[in-house]
Description:
Elements: H1 6-10, H2 14-17, H3 22-26, E1 40-41, H4 52-65, H5 75-95, E2 103-106, H6 109-118, H7 120-124, E3 130-134, H8 143-152, E4 155-159, H9 169-175, E5 180-186, H10 198-208, E6 211-215, H11 227-230, E7 234-238, E8 249-253, H12 255-260, E9 271-273, E10 281-282, H13 296-310, H14 314-333, E11 338-340, E12 350-355, H15 360-369, E13 372-373, E14 375-377, H16 382-388, E15 393-397, H17 404-418, H18 439-458, H19 463-474, E16 498-504, E17 510-516, H20 519-532, H21 537-542, H22 545-552, H23 566-579
Parallel strand pairs: 1-13, 3-4, 3-5, 5-6, 6-7
Antiparallel strand pairs: 2-8, 7-8, 9-10, 11-12, 12-15, 14-15, 16-17
Helix pairs in contact: 4-13, 5-13, 14-17, 15-17, 15-19, 19-20, 20-23
Amino acid sequence: MKNFKAKKFREQFPLLYRQRSSTEIHEHKLSDQGENKSLVYFDNAATTQRPCCVIERYQFFYQELNANVHRSSHSLSAKATSAFEQARQCVTDFIHAKSIKEVIWTKGATESINLIANTLGEQILSPNDEIIITVSEHHANIVPWQLLAKRTGSLIKVLTLEKDGRIDISAFERLINEKTKIICCSHVSNVIGKVNPIDVVIAKARDVGAISIIDGAQAVAHFTIDVQALDCDFYLFSAHKMYGSTGVGVLYGKQHLLESMPPYQAGGEMIKTVSFNQPTTFNVLPFKFEAGTPNIAGIVAFSQAIKFMSQFNQKEIIQYEHQLTRYCYQALTKIPQVKFIVQGLPDIPVIAFIINGHHNHDIASTLDSFGIAIRSGHHCAMPLMEYLNISGCLRVSMAAYNTIEEVDYFIDCLTKAINQEGTASVSNISTNINAETNKGQLTAEINSSVATIMAQFSAIKSWDARHREIMMLGKTLNRLDKYARNDQSLISGCESLAWLVVSKNKKGLYFFQADSDAKIIRGLLVIVLAAFNDKTAKQIQMFDIQSYFEQLGLMQHLSPSRGNGVLAIVDKIKCLAMSGKVE
């Protein structure tokens, strides 16, 4: 077993190692080469980076072993099948399962949960039976159970938290009873980063005959898992959160439970015999739950990720991650505007907080302009946000390849983001359309706005400078009156709150007003409104927003993801113009 050395470990990850060196980070030297800015990657709770050996193993499969598994008699298929099943044995050993029959391949933790809900859940639940879910669960461990409860007439009971973010065992003891049939609990919350007392949860579930389902997506990369010692009924996780491939997940289940469950999907591999004259029969475990051609290359590469991690002294990795967590947490405590969403130091390097007086998306986008990737929003944990009475938060999540120097750089840039000031260089863009008397003057101004914006952004070469310009543009946007920010004008699909109202003159030209609670969105609104105001419905429909943003160098803000919602804003504008609805 190798001793863990952070620098040597980091060198195994090409996307990170080819970026800025630790010395450059420490000296706060920014690369200024357009979109190839150096990266500080603090979004590991979403997905981790891949080491060279995993990337190479993935490529090796397609170059040397590419064939379907289990189904052919030729030697290439035999080699692919051998590698595929060796990966299953690797996972079995990794989580200390009793048998390979207890390890099911899925597309990820989400499919693993859905598999249980749609098989065992359908079997054991009756009207008025109860499912206990913690308030801090990821949506993937909430929605499948909500759908199941609706189908079966069962009830969902929500388990609350202590002030430190761990589940409240006293409240759990009051919730659990003879009607409890399923208990779902994350080993570690993807937002809070605290290890839940799942040993108590599992033991109490066993006492009442309930099924225990543990979501280990955030746990497997940070400490050893022994499913036999835990004695849980099910444990599940995704490969991509522990240096493996996307599209690969693991469902561990006790063999007797898996054998009692019907197939989840029908197709090839999961059958034993198929006939129009006799009942179709199903394959044995684990193949009964693996219909169709799996992600063979991803699974084979995942086994390499496990081997990669297993070669290092795990205690040293855990100790180093705790050092990173403590260092970052203590540095954040020294920033007056930082407010942690729960009390106390996290158990894994996942730290969630808000910045008083600043919108989460503004901070995250500013950090992105410095080459720092963190996550902002509700983190697929909207019930937790509601429980904590916040709209969202910032999340810094680190891994063993991150460094103290990166934390120092992050803290320095966060301080700059909080204190960021400036004036807009595009000073002649007006968006004030409140007064009926100045609409003629406004039309002339907006007609020139697109050209002005294009000229201004064409002179900007770096992403951080573009970001500053957007933030400054946001200051030129006239805010909507409070009465206009209502449910009718709210833009669906924009994670930060944003509103849009419209009017139309006698010539059929549309005028849009918009507002947002995030500065970055207000700046983008200036750019968007400049493109669509003073146009007919036909012109609005024909305008190529993608080309416009491409020329401005702002394509990342036009992502179809729900992050900033620019596409949602554009869709709302086009929808209003198409429908002809006005104020």
